[in-house]
TrEMBL record:
SUPFAM superfamilies: GroES-like, NAD(P)-binding Rossmann-fold domains. Signal peptide: none annotated. This is Oxidoreductase. GO terms for molecular function: oxidoreductase activity. Residues 10-303 form the Enoyl reductase (ER) domain. InterPro entries: ADH-like_N, ER, GroES-like_sf, NAD(P)-bd_dom_sf, Zn-ADH-like_protein.
Length: 305
């Protein structure tokens, strides 16, 4: 089978021939139809001290199951998180991290919706905006951000604003239902917000907190790090909430399943429309990574196996 790999920090990515893996206990072997490209994986390629397996979101058809698997069988269409080599023709999923793809949706729909949608949904659950409150979404054109904009609107937010790095993304963000779109380097982001959902981190944390109204909540879910001054929180009784999807998946499988079911319901009703920026062949994985690194993507970036 084909598999994308790299040998040193920063790449380059290349396709090699590798044996098809065997599913172990509790695992599914999936023939990949679509693979999601995410910022955390792209960052690890450029920053990790040692090469990593290119894992992440995959979707496709079950071709074999390991011992103890009870929820799925050969021929089922599934999606989930692969923690090994996922940029490949075949990949392994743990049963607990796998969900079925419903009728009426394809593999690309699943890649664009499920993992990114779960993060967006979870971030909003952490922020808990009340009906009528104002919400700012950073990285609003990203795979997660563009869904967070739609979900904030679906939850009854009174004002939804997207923040982006490039003014060329503004029309896309407004098409998602945002009332406005601002740039990170604008002098002002407008009236204060009750909630800021931040996927960027780093130097953007300080202006994100400054954009909060008194008693406002910043939900930080970026892998970009960053620090804040406690005084900036104390002045307006503001709070910062950290969110990580993996903790929910491992510790609250019931909640994970509930959110996933709700995402598919919203998708079926047309209230949630995942956008795909582009689909790349495995051989063009480097181009897919470049779309994420340069922040030119509008929606999800997908590899096709």
């Amino acid at each position: 089978m084909r598999r994308v790999r790299y040998e040193s920090t920063g790449g380059p990515l290349f396709v090699e021939q590798a044996p098809v893996p065997e599913p172990g206990p509790g695992e599914l072997l999936v023939r990949c139809a679509a693979i999601g490209v995410t910022l955390p994986v792209v960052r690890k390629v450029t920053e990790a001290a040692e090469p990593i397996a290119l894992g992440g979101e995959i979707a496709g058809e079950v071709v074999a199951t390991g011992e103890g698997v009870t929820r799925f069988r050969t021929g089922d269409r599934v999606t989930g998180m692969c923690f090994g080599h996922g940029y490949a023709d075949f990949a392994l999923l743990h049963e607990a991290m796998t969900s079925p793809i419903p009728d009426g949706a394809d593999a690309v729909d699943a890649i664009a919706l499920v993992r990114s949608g779960l993060v967006a949904y979870g971030v909003l659950e952490a922020a808990r905006p009340a009906p009528g409150e104002a919400v700012l979404v950073t990285a609003a054109a990203s795979g997660i951000g563009h869904l967070a904009v739609q979900l904030a609107r679906a939850r009854g937010a009174g004002r939804v604003v997207g923040a982006v790095s490039d003014p060329g993304k503004a029309d896309f963000v407004r098409s998602l239902g945002a009332d406005d779109c601002v740039r990170y380097d604008d002098d002002s982001w407008g009236d204060p917000f009750d909630c800021v959902l931040d996927a960027v981190g780093g130097d953007l944390l300080t202006p994100a907190v400054a954009a909060l109204a008194p008693y406002g909540r910043l939900v930080a879910y970026s892998s970009g790090g960053g620090t804040l001054k406690a005084y900036d929180l104390l002045v307006g009784a503001k709070s910062v909430i950290g969110f990580q999807m993996a903790l929910i998946a491992r510790g609250r499988p019931d909640l994970y399943e509930q959110w996933r079911t709700e995402l598919w319901r919203l998708f079926a009703e047309g209230a949630l429309k995942p956008a795909v920026h582009a689909e790349f062949a495995l051989e063009d994985a480097a181009k897919a990574h470049a779309a994420i690194e340069t922040r030119t993507n509008l929606g999800k970036v997908v590899l096709r196996a």
